[in-house]
Every structure is written in structure tokens, then in C-alpha cells.
Design a protein that fits this description.
80% helix, mainly alpha, Four Helix Bundle (Hemerythrin (Met), subunit A), 193 residues, 6 helices, single chain
Length: 193
């Protein structure tokens, strides 16, 4: 058992330090996207704003990301209940759905580009690419965490330890966070056009 876990066990009424750090990070990301969406609203009201319809593929990518989150949650439940093969398979499946989300995002960007919406043109397109691109970078961070979880699942002996449980919870919470963030961005982009 590592020192961090031992210290946490002596202070069970407090939040685990790694979870606290994650929540601080997620709060910072939320503030950053809040600033971006505020800037979007301010710039939109200044005029010279091109109106266009969001490609439908962004809505499909939303479903894919939400399904990935549900699968990851099921993997976590399987991990806790001793269903090793199900936990591993669902973990891998969630990762594949996360990759599919990024592929669909890319196709959405290509659909925008095909109708003349690019990064250098009108500010409306620039904001869309920045918002969705920075979110995609955060999804890549979540995929990196999933890769670590997959490597742990397939290279180490299956055992539910406090450390592995906390690591899985951190990944799960972050993955749910990027889902909620994407749903917020999609709704914002849809209603503000």
C-alpha cells in the first residue's frame, strides 16, 4: 500500500487528494470553457457573424461519447464485482467508442470545411473549431488515462485494491466530465446560432 493511500485511510472523512486535484482541474477547465463561450457571445453580438447549421455528425458523435461513458461505468461496476473478463472487455470497448468520437469530430470538421467554414474565415467558424478542438484535446487526455487503465487491466493480475479503485474512479469521473462538457458545448452551439 502506498503512502498516499495510507494517509487517506487515516482521514476517511476527507476527500482523497487525487480526487481533489482532479476536481480542481475540472473546475479550471470549466472556467476556461465558460470564458470561451462568453467570448463567443460577446463576439457574436459585435456583428459580422456567419450563420450556419451544425453538421448532424456532431449529434451522432454525442451519442457515441455518451455510450462510451455508460460502457466505462459498467466496466467499473464489473471491476468492483469481480467480473474480470467483462470489466476488461468493457474497458477496451469504451476506449474504442472514445476513438470513434474523435473520428466523428474530425468528420464534422471536414463537413464544415466542405461548406466553406474554416478556421481562418469568419469568426463564427473560428470559434467553433477552437471550442470543439480544445474539447477534443481533453478527450485525448481521457483516452490516455483509458490506455493506462487498459494496460493495467491486461498486464497485471486482477485484484481490486484501493489504489486501482481510486485510479479507475479518477478516470471515470474525468470521462463523465468530458461528456457533460461536450453536451454543454453542443447545446450552447446549437441554441446560439
Amino acid at each position: 500500500m502506498d503512502t498516499l493511500t495510507q494517509r487517506y485511510e487515516h482521514t476517511t472523512n476527507k476527500i482523497h487528494p487525487l480526487k481533489f486535484a482532479l476536481w480542481i482541474g475540472m473546475a479550471s477547465i470549466t472556467m476556461m470553457f465558460g470564458a470561451f463561450t462568453s467570448a463567443y457571445v460577446v463576439r457574436q453580438s459585435a456583428g459580422n457573424w456567419l450563420e450556419f447549421e451544425l453538421p448532424h455528425i456532431f449529434f451522432l458523435s454525442t451519442i457515441v461519447l455518451l455510450v462510451s461513458s455508460l460502457i466505462l461505468h459498467s466496466s467499473y461496476k464489473s471491476f468492483l464485482s469481480g467480473k474480470e473478463s467483462k470489466y476488461k472487455l468493457l474497458l477496451l470497448t469504451s476506449f474504442v467508442f472514445g476513438l470513434a468520437f474523435l473520428v466523428l469530430q474530425y468528420q464534422g470538421w471536414m463537413a464544415l470545411f466542405s461548406i466553406g467554414i474554416d478556421l481562418k474565415g469568419n469568426p463564427s467558424g473560428s470559434f467553433l473549431y477552437v471550442l470543439t478542438g480544445i474539447h477534443a484535446l481533453h478527450v485525448l487526455g481521457g483516452l490516455a488515462a483509458l490506455v493506462v487503465g487498459i494496460l493495467t487491466a491486461y498486464t497485471r493480475k486482477y485484484k481490486v485494491t484501493e489504489r486501482r479503485k481510486i485510479n479507475f474512479e479518477l478516470t471515470l469521473q474525468y470521462w463523465h466530465f468530458v461528456d457533460i462538457l461536450w453536451v454543454y458545448l453542443l447545446i450552447f452551439l446549437y441554441i446560439s446560432r
